[in-house]
Structures are given as structure tokens and as C-alpha cells.
Amino acid sequence: MSEHFLQYRRGGYAGRGGSSQGGQPSSSPALSALPQERTLTEGLSATPIETVTKPTSVSEAVIAVKQLEYIGSFNWTSASKPTIIVPGCPPLWRDRALPYKVPRDSGVRFVDQTGYHMPAYPLYSLVRAVDIMSEDKGDSFDWSTVDIVTDRNGLRKLLRWLNDDGTAKDFRIDTQLAGRRTVLLNRWEKKTREMPNPQYSTYGFSFEHESTYRAPDCEQASGYHRIVKYDLDGLTMVVRFEVDACLPTGTSASASRRQTASTDVDSLSNMLSGLAVASGAGKGPAVDKAASTTELDIIRAGQPVPQSSLIEMTTRSRNNAMNYDWIEQYPQLFLSQTPHHYLAVHNRGKFEDITKRALGDAEMKRTEARLQGSFRKLRAALEAIQNLIVEHGERAAASSNGHHRNQTSRSKFHRRDILDGLDSSVLETLQKPAASAGETDATIGDVEYIGSYNWIDQQKPTIVVPGSPAVLSSDDDENAHATIAVGSPRMWLNREVPFQVTPDEGTHCIYEDGWKVQAYPMVPWFHAVETVMSQGSRQMDWSGVDFVASRNTLRKLLRWTKESKPDDFRIDTQLAGERTVVFGQWVERMWMNADKRYPGYGRSFEHESTCAAPGL
Questions:
Q1: Residue 100 main-chain phi, psi, to 5 deg
Q2: What is the pLDDT of residues 235-287, one digit of tens each?
Q3: Which single residue of 22, 136, 151, 477 has CA 20 to 30 Å from 48?
Q4: CA-based radius of gyration for the chain
Q5: From CA 210, how far away is CA 523, in angstroms rounded?
Q6: What average pLDDT does range 77-88 have in this prediction?
Q7: Higher pLDDT, 368 or 437
């Protein structure tokens, strides 16, 4: 029964391109393993929160990427559990002598590799890579200073929407507020893998494979993803993007353009000897247990490569090379500041010419100038999206589809649907218990205090637990909750009445546990109980518990039993052990903005009538 509940509860995982049974498939799964395409509105409420119109009036400022900083990188592996190599390394450019022939593309390929490996947490690998590399430098990354966290892919989709002439594809971006101002733009695709179209012969993936080689300890790696931070006209951006290749380190730019076979034999020989040693070791680098988490394993391998070495590769047939659309393709380089672009031209897979361009070339600068209007609109749209998400303080999704795009030039935002992530089939329907005469009154007895905690504002989710040591961390780093000496409710001031308070304003958190520890909202409960009980040399016997639930959840059930038309609600259930049922709280939104139409005073009254306990 526990498997059925878990599968029902996490049904959305498989629907996002992963597998809810048997772990992750290999990096080259069979065609039969490919799921059907998802619909654009999957898991969304039918009623949009708000509709955003394309910016029509924008500033005349020159949009440039400033203060670029490389902050993280990783490669995916084909391990059964999602695993990344940090910092990883892109494939290294071979600079082969032309011409050479490659086979046509075949087999399953990724549309969204991260969405395939971690469909429920598309930005988790980004955050872990950045945090790990920051910690390795003896530092910590301050996410609270960031305005937008996104994949480059999301920025390009927004640009196409802004420039749409009626030919842009439908798209969706799942949005989320992190903290007070940081907006997460989660990539969403109808499919995470695909097969090549048999009607068209393409050679791009084969060209990449035949024109590069793997770095030591990254032989089994795929999909190098790099994360940079930069300023976009006042917006602090963290952007992840995939890198096709890089110039070999330790090789001058002039040498890298010469033919490897004749002029770079020593460098290539040394690299290949390193590969031989690595492969001879058999197993390769081991998983770093200390850095790994329940969701994601970490392998420490690869090496940081300079931004100046990155290459974006594109292939075109000889007939189509002259029609290369720089207005469409240049933003890919600009938004990631990829410095090198290689356009490889072929005749039925025989590559005869490679045109190498640099981001700073005069030709590229002219294209950038032509696109300034689009970049200004993108900057304005990002700010509008940020303001909307901060105002509503909740998870949502931005989407554009053919029914609305040409008529209104707008993008709609939707909040989570109550069925989001659930299987469409119902396990069983529970009826309201019928009232029975003569039954004894229900009472609550044997009340025992077993734990408590306060949330405090820290970069990492942190709770304050009574009587705990100075620092106490969980085994799983991403769920670590540092605890300090004293935890206590706010203290009643017993002020003389009357006294005046101001109307509530700003946003307030509806469900702090779910916001701070979204994947495991019950974790702080268990940590607090275990910590408090251990102070008295006791241990909590969870096997003797029937239900673990929040008061909010019990009240929802009570309304359902009493009211003829109660509000819709959802409770995620899970069996722990043989009999303990855990009720996970689910809310449509994590944050709520004060409604200026109907002023409230409750939160202001609490603040003015109480004070924080000493040390809090």
C-alpha cells in the first residue's frame, strides 16, 4: 500500500520525463522508453493569475553583459541515480584537418538533459554545483542578491516571444519565488528526449563527437553545463547553459587553430596518455559521499576552464550555410558570453569548411547593435515577471500559445493546480463518516510536549531548537538545519489598551516549512523532536505513532466532514514503517500579498503585541 500511495503522491515525476519505477534509464534509452509529449497546460489552473503584455515602451540604454563571473559547472553521467561531475569539463576541440566525414545522427538524443535526470528539481543541480564550488574556495554564494536564476534556453524563449512574427513555437516556463526577490525560471519541455527526424539527415551531434575528445576523468560524462553570474542593466542574473566544446588548456590560441595531427602531437599525446591511465584504473572517480545528497550524487573530477576557451558549434549543409540567421542565433552567444562560434559546413556529412568567429568581431558587434531593441524588451520583460512573481509570492508558470499569441501578444501566468503531480487514476474514494447516535465525545488526552522550533533567516534553511548544541546538522547536506541554543515563541507584552496598529502590508509566508524545505517539509519536525527528546536522554518511538500531521491539515479534514460545500484541498499521504501515516501539507501558494482592497491588521497586531525572546 505504501508503494501505491507514494506513486500516487509523486505521479508527476514520471510525467515530466523521468521514471517512477526502477531508477533512471541509461543516457541512450530505447525508443520504446520515450514517453508521450506533455501538454502545455499540464498541472496548471485553467484561470491565469495575470496576463503580461509585451513591453512597448523601453529605455534607450545600451544593454550589455557586465561583471561576468564563472560560478559553477558540471557534467551529467549515465548513472542510475542522478549524478553530476563537479566542476567537470567540456569536450576538448581536436582541430582536425579538413575535410573529414562523419555519420549521420542516429539514436535518442536529449532535448533537456537536466529535465530528464531531475524532472522535479530542474535547478537543483545548478544550485549544488555553485554551492560546492563556492565552498571549495572557502566562500558561500549569496543567492539573496540575485534577481533571476534561469537557463539560457528560457531567455531565448522569451526573446522569441518578444520578437514573434507569428512563427514562434508555444512555450512554458515554470516560475518560483525564492526568498524576497529572487525569481527562479525553471525550464519546461513537452519532451526531454527525442529521435532524429528520419525525413532529414542531420550531422550536428556526430560532428561534435568526431571533432572533440573527453578530458581525463570525464570519459563517461555528457552534457557540460556552465553557470555564470552577470549584471544585465541592473538585474543580477545567474544563467546556466550547455557548452559544446572548449579550446584545450595550456595551448595557445594560435596553436589551437593548427591541425592537431601535424603540429599539436605532443599536447594530444599527453592528453591521450592521461586518458589511458584513467581508463586503466577501471572504475574512475568515486562518488563524494560528503557532498552528495539524497537526490543527487556528486563526483569530484574535471577542471575549471576559462570563459575565453568556450566554443559554440553549429553545422549547416552547403546549400543552407548562406542562410544562417544571426538574428536568431546571436543571442545564444550573447546571453552566455560564449566567445567562440564555429560554423561547420558539410556536403552530406563530409565537412569541408569551418568558419571561426569571435564574439568581439566587428561583424558580431553589428549584429549585437541590431538586436539592442530586442535586448531592451527582454530586460523590461524580466523585470515585469519579477515584479509579478514577487507580488503574488507563489509558484506559477509563464506560457504563450497559438490561441493567444497572435491576438494579444501576451504571456499568461498560472498558479499550481490542485492535481499537479498526481496520477489521473484514483486509488480509492473516501466517503464522509456518517454520524452515529450514542457515541462518546471525542477528547484529547495525554498531551505531551515533544519538540518545537523557530525559523530564522539564513542562506541555508535554519531552525532554532530549544536546548540544542551550538550547531547540529543533518546527514543530508541539502536538508541541513543548523540549530542554536534557544528556541521560543514570541513573548506577550500585555500592552495597555487601546493602542493603534497599521494595516498589514507586504508579503507573508503561508507555509514556511514547505517554503524553506520544499522537498521534505516534515524534516524540521523530526529534527526538532529528536533534538528536544535527546536532551532528556529519551528517544522518540515513531513506531507508536498513528498520524503525523499539522494542525492546518486536521482543520481541513474537519471542515470537509462538517461543511456541505467545503473549499477544495489536498493532503499528500505517505506510510512510514508499518502503521504510521504522515500527512504532508500542500498549499496552492507559499506566499500571499496583503490585499489593499480589504485591509487586515492581524499580523501587525501580533508584531506590536509581542516581542522576540532573547537571542532570537
A1: -150, 155
A2: 999 999 999 999 997 643 333 333 333 334 333 333 333 333 333 334 678 99
A3: 151
A4: 27
A5: 48
A6: 96
A7: 368
| Residue 236 contacts residue 229 (beta carbons within 8 Å) | yes
Residue corresponding to grid cell 533512471:
24
Calculate ∠ Cα 228-96-247, nearest 5°: 20
- End-to-end C-alpha distance for the chain, whole angstroms: 43
CA–CA separation, 448 and 466 (whole Å): 16
Burial class (CB in 10 A: 0-12, 13-18, 19+), 178: middle
Residues 90, 213: Cα–Cα separation, whole Å: 9
Nearest Cα neighbor of 418 from 594, 582, 572, 551 is 572
Residue 467: predicted pLDDT: 52
Confidence of residue 477 (pLDDT cuts 50, 70, 90): very low
State the cell numbers at 576: 512510514
Q: Grid coordinates representing 206?
A: 556526430
Phi then psi for residue 150, to 5 deg, are -155, 165
What's the whole-number average pLDDT of the chain?
A: 80
Question: In this structure, which amino acid lies at residue 155?
Answer: L
Half-sphere exposure of residue 88, counting CA atoms within 13 Å on the CB side? Answer: 31
Selected residue with higher pLDDT from 596 and 160: 160
Angle formed at CA 90 by CA 88 and CA 91, multiple of 5 degrees: 125
Which amino acid is located at 460 in the chain?
A: K
Domain boundaries, the chain: 43-304+365-416, 454-611
Q: Using CA atoms, how far apart are residues 574 and 583, in angstroms rounded to an integer?
A: 7
Which residues, 6 or more positions from 4, have their beta carbon under 8 angstroms from its beta carbon? Answer: 427
CB atoms within 10 A of CB 520: 19
Torsion of CA 147, 149, 152, 158, to 10 degrees: -60
C-alpha cell read off for 68: 561576468
Contact 230, 337 (CB under 8 A): yes
Query: Which pLDDT does position 473 carry in this prediction?
Result: 41
Please report, as a single letter, which amino acid is at residue 281: A
